[in-house]
């Protein structure tokens, strides 16, 4: 069986499951790289050099989230309007005596148009509660920085069938803080049990959960075109196409597979073929 046959099978399976949105219509995708606390200055420079040659199709938008110390390299070297960049977190406060924090206006000075907030690693290791995450999203928006708000349930919560409740609580906190400006955020659904584990939810689980998140956002009064939901958790070149075909998946937040330019470029290319 060659690559084409496999792709046809995947497409047919997605259609059989009724998970395909508008067959024949080219979807737009966001492909976002979360480097976490990885990469050196040298590696970042090499990565940016390699990204210069990348072809990005019209339906693809690329985002990169490097560690803070390398943001300046993006500001100085990135002259590609199809690649946006941002930080992995932002302070909820505007300025003042908050040692170690980086404010939204500082991110603006670094040319960031985006920031991640509420990544599960921040929620788990640094005590970012749903309310703190919501305040961070608000602080970012004040400086025209688009928050990529990560939400997701743990394995326990999934197994106990509590995931909808958990996701709703995380979303409601943001809605309570910023109202319909949630429509100015990008939501990244990242099941904690799929992050860095190589374990991927089934297509049905991804569809069902994205649809649920979509419905919650719709109920806040958001228009369909303002709702962007990324999937994150062990995405790689092997699974990106089938997940991309699922309705309400508007792109990906990618950790491990985004650390090598070759692998990231490959994913960008594959998403544009869907
Ligand atoms: C992440 O941490 O946002 C992530 C999705 O990581 P990985 O792709 O490595 O699972």
Question: Which features characterize this protein?
Answer:
disordered N terminus; binds phosphoenolpyruvate; globular; alpha/beta; TIM Barrel; 8-stranded parallel β-barrel; 274 residues
Strands of the widest sheet, in order across it, are: 1-2-3-4-5-6-7-8
On the 0 to 100 scale, the average pLDDT is 92
Distance between the termini: 19 Å
**Share of residues in strands:** 5-15%
CATH architecture level-2 label of the domain at 86-256: Alpha-Beta Barrel
The computed structural class is: alpha/beta
Number of strands: 8
Q: Are there runs of 5+ residues with pLDDT below 50, and where?
A: 1-9
Described by the principal axes of the CA atoms, the overall outline is globular
- Major sheet characteristics: 8 strands, parallel, barrel
Please give the share of residues in helix: 40-55%
CATH-derived topology of the domain at 86-256: TIM Barrel
Compounds present?
Answer: phosphoenolpyruvate
Indicate the CATH class of the domain at 86-256: Alpha Beta
Q: Calculate Rg over CA atoms.
A: 18 Å
CATH homology superfamily name of the domain at 86-256: Aldolase class I
Q: What report would you give on this structure?
A:
With 274 residues, the protein is an alpha/beta fold. The chain has a domain at 86-256: Aldolase class I (TIM Barrel, Alpha-Beta Barrel), CATH 3.20.20. Helix content is 41%, strand content 14%. It contains 11 helices and 8 strands. It has helices at 3-16, 41-51, 71-77, 104-109, 120-125, 130-142, 155-159, 163-178, 203-219, 240-244, 261-272, and strands spanning 29-34, 60-65, 83-87, 114-117, 146-151, 186-189, 229-232, 251-254. The chain has an 8-stranded parallel β-barrel, surrounded by 4 helices. Helix 4 (104-109) links the parallel strand 3 and strand 4 (114-117). Helix 6 (130-142) runs parallel beside helix 8 and helix 8 (163-178) runs parallel beside helix 9. Phosphoenolpyruvate binds at residues 34, 190, 195-196, 232-235, 253-257.
């Amino acid at each position: 069986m060659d690559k084409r046959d496999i792709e046809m099978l995947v497409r047919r399976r997605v259609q059989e499951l009724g998970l395909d949105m508008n067959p024949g219509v080219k979807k737009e995708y966001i492909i976002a790289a979360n480097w976490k606390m990885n990469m050196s200055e040298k590696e970042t420079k090499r990565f940016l050099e390699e990204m210069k040659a990348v072809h990005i199709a019209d339906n693809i938008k690329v985002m990169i989230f490097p560690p803070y110390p390398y943001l300046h390299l993006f500001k100085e070297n990135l002259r590609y309007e199809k690649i946006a960049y941002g930080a992995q977190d932002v302070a909820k406060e505007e300025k003042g005596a908050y040692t170690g924090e980086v404010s939204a206006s500082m991110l603006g000075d670094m040319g960031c148009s985006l920031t991640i907030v509420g990544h599960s690693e921040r929620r788990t290791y640094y005590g970012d509660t749903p309310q703190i995450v919501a305040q961070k999203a608000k602080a970012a928006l004040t400086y025209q920085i688009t928050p990529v708000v990560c939400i997701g349930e743990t394995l326990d919560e999934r197994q106990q069938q509590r995931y909808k409740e958990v996701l709703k609580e995380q979303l409601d906190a943001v809605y309570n803080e910023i109202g319909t400006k949630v429509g100015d955020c990008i939501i990244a659904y990242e099941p904690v049990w799929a992050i860095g584990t190589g374990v991927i939810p089934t297509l049905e689980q991804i569809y069902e959960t994205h649809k649920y998140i979509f419905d919650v956002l719709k109920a806040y009064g958001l228009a369909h075109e303002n709702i962007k939901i990324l999937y994150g958790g062990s995405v790689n070149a092997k699974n990106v196409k089938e997940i991309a075909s699922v309705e309400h998946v508007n792109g990906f937040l990618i950790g491990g597979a985004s650390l090598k330019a070759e692998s990231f470029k490959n994913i960008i290319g594959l998403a544009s073929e869907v």
